[in-house]
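ESCALATION

Customer reports they have been waiting on this structure for their group meeting. Please prioritize. Original submission:
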Amino acid sequence: MSDAWPASMLVMLLAAAALRLWLSLRQERHVRRHRDAVPPAFAARISLAAHQQAADYSIARTRFTRIALAVELLLLLGLTYGGGLDTLHEHWSAHADGIAYGMGLIASIALLASLVDLPLDAYRQFRLEARFGFSRMTFALYLSDCLKQALLAAALGLPLIAAALWLMQATGAYWWLYVGLLWIGFNLVVMFIYPLWIAPLFNRFTPLPEGEPKRHIRSLLERCGFDAGEIFVMDGSRRSSHGNAYFTGLGKARRIVLFDTLLERLAPAQIEAVLAHEIGHFQHRHIAQRMAWALGASLLLLALLGQLLEAPGFYHSFGVTHVNTAIGLSLFALVLPMLAFPCAPLFSALARRQEFEADAYAARMTSASALATALVQLYADNASTLTPDPLHSLFHDSHPPASQRIARLQTLACQPHAQAQGMTPEAQDERHLPPFSEPRRIA
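Update from on-call: job pushed to the front of the queue and completed.
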């Protein structure tokens, strides 16, 4: 192996980090440049003060990501060219061997990364989010969350690592196929148990009480022919004032979850439209598509790793002198996120196409106007910038920019749909209204 290879890999890592830094600087400049004027499409719904707060929040978060990037890069360089992986190997090889050695090595890297990230996460929670009025986290609750997350990571992650290392040793040249199937199976199990046993460790989930929101949701589910199981309200306000809604679980564990903050801010017809968007993901089989992409990508990456594990040049290119399965797996997991970042626009484009399809489904089944006004309310409540840098957004955002999404919904609101006869009277009344016909402003 040429001595130029380590230098070349270092240049590639630094170039990927420089790309992320450049995009971050573009984002800050673009948001700041558009801070003093609300985009015309939103001027009737969002006040200048709310727009400026969103801009300031976006700038603060963007600056924070640059600090996080620097810490991430330093940790990566320390573990690779700085000799961290070799040091961990020497420690664990003196105390364990086989699968126990691999588990100790990988767990040590995960623990080190968590400890490095802890001050950053605490700053984000107690300073950045609190500065803009979003964080409601108490120190006691934060410590409780950290402890639970650590125990869960150990309970779920250590057996997974042990099983993967055993398969890599026992199944020959096609170990990557078996490990890939193990990974997919693990994710399916987690999707099933998450709403039943994991999520309740962190939040309270209570059935949605009878009333107008539940009536709207039941009507929507009947029109869509969608069996979602129980509808729950989550006490998201314990930690943050951000609002959200989601579907979770598989089979009989499937359920709709609404944040209590969302119920406080959206009208029943708007909640119905937001949920119709989520149902649209299921009806278009987006979840199955994402799982298929994940399976394909996992198998391809594991097959690539299978070629690299036996190549000493792979290790030496990143300054690592010892060669074995656990180190190779750890090294691959460490460098892949940085080196793969330039491919982010491809996955972003696929995700955005799905978001547009789900929006169109919601416009057919409920009201494009109701969804548009709900989204604008959420943009305002969550201080989401309406003027992201297009290039930064292409790399970082899985959802289309607000201007594109609302413009598409405005077009859909003017189109007649055969499904309107099955809609609720309120939704039929709203269907042909422009999304911003109401004059009220969101503070």
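Sent to customer with the following note: Residues 4-134+288-345 form one domain.
Escalation resolved.
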